[in-house]
Amino acid sequence: MESMLKNNMSVAAIAGELGMTRAAIYAELRKVGKAKDQKSYSADEAQKQLRR
Question: Residue 45 in contact with residue 31, Cβ under 8 Å?
Fold first, then answer.
């Protein structure tokens, strides 16, 4: 997901590629506080949030 966002893929395209809903993608982005600034999403940061 991180590389897809950095390559300017839309949330809808990412959701389709990953077999998820757009809502699930946005929830993941909100989880790490990046929903508005999608290009700065970090999978590492998401993992850290999950472990807390």
Answer: no
